[in-house]
Each structure stands twice: as structure tokens, then as C-alpha cells.
Amino acid sequence: MSKTTSVIMVGVGGQGILLASEILAQAAMLCGYDVKTNEVHGMAQRGGSVMAQVRFGEEVFSPLVQEGKADALASLEAIEGLRAAHYLQPGALAVVNTQQIIPVTVSSGLGEYPADSAERCESVFPNLKMFNAVEIANNLGNDRVANIVIMGALSTGLELPVEKWQEAIRKSVKPKFVELNLEAFEKGRQAAK
Amino acid sequence: MRELMSGNQAIARGAWEAGVALAVGYPGTPSTEILENIVAFKDDLICEWAPNEKVAFEVAVGASFAGARTIVTMKHVGLNVAADPLMTFAMSGAVGGMVIVVADDPGMHSSQNEQDSRNWGPFAKIPVLEPSDSQEAKDFIRYGLELSEKFETPVIVRTLTRISHSRSIVETGERTAPNPVGFRKDPPRYVAIPAWARKMRVKVEQRLYRLISEAEHSPINRIEMRDKKFGIIASSAAYQYVREAMPEVSTLKLGMSYPYPEEMIKKFAASVEELVIIEELDALVETYVKSLGIKCRGRDIVPGIGEFSPAILTEARAKLEDVKADTPKPVKESADLPMRPPVLCAGCPHRGTYAALKKFNPVVMGDIGCYSLGTLPPLSSLDSILCMGGSIGMAHGMQRVGEEKPVVGILGDSTFFHSGITGIINTVYNKGLSTIVVVDNRITAMTGHQHHPGTGQTLMGEQTVEASIEDIARACGVKRVRTLNPYNLKQTEAAIKEEIEAKEASLVVLKAVCPLYARKPVGTIHKIDEEKCIACGACVKIGCPAIEYKKGSKPKINPLLCSGCSLCAQKCPKNAISVCDEVVQNF
Question: What CATH number does the domain containing A70 carry?
């Protein structure tokens, strides 16, 4: 792989985007690639739309992904993927969690949450893996690992060996949560099949 | 060892490796994690949160005068606060190396304004270094400290959101032994009385000439010749976007963006067909290059407002080549998506404050912190935000000229210690009547939970004196000081009513710990009884992200988000909201 691979991760502040991007970045580094990531902290985290980007390859310059150039997209929420759809290259992999988080703007009557978010995703993303990651995480006993379930699905579209992902998970989460996260990752891989 | 590090982690590492003895600052996105990461080295150095950037700067100056290496960290607006000591310290100069790390936020991801901190270079006549990735962020700290000692000058290392919060691979090194400490008395050097300051002023100009010579030969300024059709001068993140979008063009990469390497620029300009300056925010290098009589392009192909991106550079390239750029726009399926701006978290105590304030429709002068999230609908409670501590002065000024509505100034606990106290002294001294509300959530919350003088704990994890907001207010002369629990809506409303009606200045502390910091829910998860609910929207108006409401249905509480603060239940006219007994807590 001589070109740079760019991955976009989106969701809602608090869903665990930062950990997810950390794991991908570590996995890529363990494979010997140059890596750059970016994310926004502070005000942008408080329940708003959030995005993290990870790029890896022989030599990576920009930490920011150009619109239309991303090789994969992972969305932890049902409509946040649509918001970032223009980052993806035509036909690239999109993994979308069907969980809906209703923004305060909708509850206050300032906007409507689209009832057809799933249909929209299907029409926008020709290469789509869409499933309920929260349900899978709940079955594992902790809904907080939905982000890792999604990363598992994302991993099926990236050319990084599974062992490197697993090593990255071991490095990035607290020891007592390693097994849970590895399991969540595996369930995500299965869900993407 | 090779490690993946954010720019901020790398700066912390660089400071430790370079033998820094003291690191000090005030939190501010995107600079905060520098000191948070330096705590890992607390066995080898002193690190402190100061109440504000000016104090932090002065602490660093003291350390430098004693011979120690030091860094002081802040966001761009923080250096405005510290500008007074900066401008005179730039004259007396450093003894132990001193680096000012200032983090800019182009595009204002988490800031009230957009500033280009490179301007401090020519203003204070001191060097400005700009790393373009984490490796350079680490290396430039050492280089900056060495420059600082060699030229007896403070040095600015300017970072950006995309440097501080981007991660890339860093080769780590060992720690250099710290300088010996020992202040040597030398009044003409350190005492800025006019007679000596005039001499210092001359030395500053002489130093600047020597620094220009350093810039010409500095290893961090480099010409990279590739195709000669275009030659681009760039620094920081902009350099990376240039390399991404135009990999074949020649570049002059400025690691030291002030003072300018005049001869290097002239040489580069002469060796390319067309010279282009790609700089984010202000056109400083471009203006300078043009002042040399050299033709160049820049502001005509890249904007001076907001943050750069690879797309902006792709468009710039198209303009240079006089072709049409093809940059993808958002898909039509996302055109009508509801906006999702940041909001006060579920369970945030500030929600109670705003719910109570709203009842009296006051003019509310706001401040910098999480509570600025009460600005947007449905809370719509803030009427202005200016700067750290600005709420109190603004409220006083408005009240003094006869504003008819009650005037309230609202600020947080960390902001109170930062620069609220002088405002309170002023309000009392000048017989103001405004009401000051301190929303005290016991931590600096917006930047990610940093300690401050009111929390009783230091950055290094030691227990310390816990400054009392109430005692300070009384000492400033405020007679009406009271403390309430913002989760108790009735009491809070009653107190606010009394205080805004009072014919003297008053201060209300609304005290409750940030539940995200406490890492536990405020109470037990609530639920809405659909039978009792009349869908009046009273609960929705407090803007809680846990309350989900779609038109044509009844509101629901999302148990994954609810913190059990009970504010919605207190607002419900039908008692339809109550504690949910069957759900397990999962906060």
C-alpha cells in the first residue's frame, strides 16, 4: 500500500470517538505506517456532532482528510454518517450504527429527525454495513463498547491485520476491559460479514 | 522510542527532555493537555495551574530569572491577558530559557475569537517558532529554550488546533539535566525603571538583528527544491496541506516564522518562476515579502478567515493553474439534517441556573465556560460573551447607565478566580446594583476538568488551601452573598428574585459539582408517565439532551443519557415525571 489511507469517524460527543480513532491509529502504527490523526476537543465535545480522522501510509502530510478522498467512514449514530458522506470516495466502505440520538434542536422544534435515515444511508453509501451496534454491545453486557463493535466492522474494509487491531486494543484500554473490547471487536467483524 | 503523540503530548515530552524545571499555565483549548501530560514527569519538575495567564507568565519569569528552564502554556486569548508582562520581559530578557507556548484556534472550534499569535513576534520583537507536526512540536521546545538562553529572549512556540490535537509519530529522547538555580543580582538587567528600560530598549533592537542572522542559518528554516514553476513559503499545518495538495512544488518551510530570513527568502524567490505565500489567518509573511519589493501571490488565492484544509489548498492550486477546482459538496440527503450543536450535558447544574433565571427575563452578561452553552435555544439565556471575567464589568456598566431590566453577570468558578475578582471590587466600590451569579461546578469544566484555587487540589495532585468564593466576595465588600443548590429550582428562583430586586450589589453562588467530573449521576433515572403527560413542552424547554421529543408524540427520557437531576420533573405542571425504579444506572 503506497498511497495514504484516510478514515473518517463521526458520532455524537460522548460516544467514544476518541478511543476509536486512537485504536485505529495504534493499529496502523504497529503495522509500520506513518500515521496522522486529528480531532477536536473542548466545546465541540459537549453532545455536538464530532469527527475524528485517521490517515496512514508511507508518508502522511496533512492530518486532515480532503472531502471526496476518504477510504472508509464509520458512524456511531444513524444520521451523522450522512452529514459526513461527502468525505467518502465513491463506492468506499461506510459502517453505520443504527442508534438514533435525538438532538436538542429536534426536541425544541428547530429541526426534524429524518424518519428515513436508513433509506438515505442505503442510497448514499453503495458499500454500506449498517446494524445496531448498541444491541450487540448490550448483549456483551456494556453498551459503552458500541464504538468498538463499529470499529470491528470497519476493520473488514481496511488492510490492517486483525492481530494488530487486537494489539492496539490491548494498548489502548484499561486491562480489566481488554477482553470485553476484544469480544466487541470480533462481534463487529461478524456483523459486517 | 517511537510513539504516537498529540502535539500537546509532544510539547510536554519536549519540555521534560530539555530539562525544564517549571511548567505553568492556565487551561484553554487547544493548549490544555500540555500541562495535563507534563504531570507524568512531576517527580522531575514543578508544574502548576495558575489562576490566569498573566500570573502564569510572571511565575515563569521568576523561574527564568533564577536560571531555570521554564515553559508557560495558554491559548491565544490567554496571551492577551499575559501581554503586560510579555512586553516588558521581552526587554529584560530570559536567563534560564523561557518558551511561551501559545495555541491558536483558526476556525474557532472552541474559542470566542480568531487571532494570529504570530503577530506577537514583530510586536514584542521576539522569535516565533511554528512546529508542523508532533515531532517538531517536541524538538522546537528544546530549540526554543536554547535560543532563549543564547539570545536572552523569551521565545514563542505557536501551535494550532491541528498541531496540538493531531497525533503523529515522535522519536523520544532522554532528559537533559536542568540548569543550576541561583539568582544573580543585576538591577540594570532586571529592574525596568525608565533609565534602565531605555537601555534595554536599545538592546532589544540589537538582539533582533542577531536573531535575523540566526533565522538565515537556522536548521528549522529550509528550502526544499522540487519543480521550479511554483515556490511556496509556508509554516505550521499550512505547510502540510501544501505538501498534500501540491507535492511537486518547491517549498521554503519556515520553522521560525519571525524574524524573517530575508536572504533565504530572496534566494528562494529568485530560484522559482512564481512565488506564493500560503499562510493561515494574517498575511504577515506576504506583507513582508512585498515590502522587499518581491512579487508574490497569497491572499488572492487563499482566504484570511477561518481554518485551512486540503480542499482550500486544492482550490488554491486550481487558481494558480487557472483551472476549475472540483471539490465535493455535502450530499443532498444531508441537506435537511437537524443541526447538532454542543449543549449543556444531561444533569448539568447550569441548566437549573438558567431555568431559574429565565423566569425573570433579565439581561444576562455571560462569560467563558460551559455555561456559554446556555446561549442557544431553547435556553436562550445569554445576551453577551466577551472575555474571561468580562461578565461582571459589563453587567455593572449596563446597570450604571440605567438599563431598565435587571442586569445579571454570570460566570463560573474557574473564571471567577481567573479575572472575576477585580470586577466585583469595582462593582462594590462604584456602588453598582448588578447581581453576580457564580455557577460553581467545582472544576474548570469546559476544558476537561482542571483544578483551580477553589478545588483544594493542585495540578501535581497535592491537597491545598481551598479558596472560598463567598469569603472573597465578602472581603470585596459584597454584603449580600448566598449559596444555593441549582438543582432546587424553587429555592434558586426565590433567591434570584430577591437578589435582582435588592438595591445593592449581590452575589449568588449556585454550587453543584459537574456530574461528568464526579463520574456519577446526579440522582436516579427519571421517566415520563404517558398517561399524565399533556405534551405541553415544559420539560423540553430546559434543553436537556436526555429528553427526546418528536412532533406529534409525547416526550420521552432516554435512560442512556438521563442523569436523574430531576429538573424536568420540577418543571412538569402535571407531575408526570418521576423516578424510574426498574432501570439500572448506567452513566
Answer: 3.40.920.10
